[in-house]
Design goal:
By secondary structure, this protein is mostly helical. The protein has a domain of 38 residues. Helices cover 61% and strands 0% of the residues. The chain is built from five helices and no strands. α1 packs antiparallel against α3. The protein is rod-shaped, with a radius of gyration of 34 Å. The protein starts with a helix and ends in a 9-residue tail after the last helix.
Length: 116
């Protein structure tokens, strides 16, 4: 579900960026192309539509971000148990060198020299 929200967030972000780029704060952009009075959408309706689209997509983006934060997977563990488990997994993945037997004489501590 989290992946679904992330994909929707990316799509809405791209669309929001395109809508903002179409607008021009000086009255140009897409609005200037609809200068004729015989157009189906006049200049003012185009500006209203783009402004409503911008605010709507911004609101949708905020809602999707909040929903995605709720659906973040919660199976990430931290602390000692996580560290221990990760170490065990790494040790299981890395083949260990074969253990060589050490003669018993070498494992004992050397005897102390007699005191004179």
């Amino acid at each position: 579900m989290y992946t679904f929200f992330v994909i929707l967030i990316l799509i809405v972000s791209v669309l929001l960026g395109l809508v903002v780029l179409v607008q021009n704060s000086k009255g140009g952009g897409l609005v200037s192309n609809f200068g004729g009075a015989n157009q189906m959408m006049g200049v003012r309706q185009t500006t209203d539509f783009l402004e409503k689209a911008t605010w709507s997509m911004a609101a949708i983006l905020v809602v999707l971000c909040l929903l995605s934060s709720i659906t973040i997977p919660k199976n990430v563990r931290t602390g000692d148990s996580f560290d221990t488990e990760m170490r065990q997994q790494i040790e299981n993945m890395v083949p260990s060198a074969p253990a060589t037997e050490v003669p018993a004489a070498e494992t004992q501590a050397p005897a102390e020299a007699p005191a004179e």
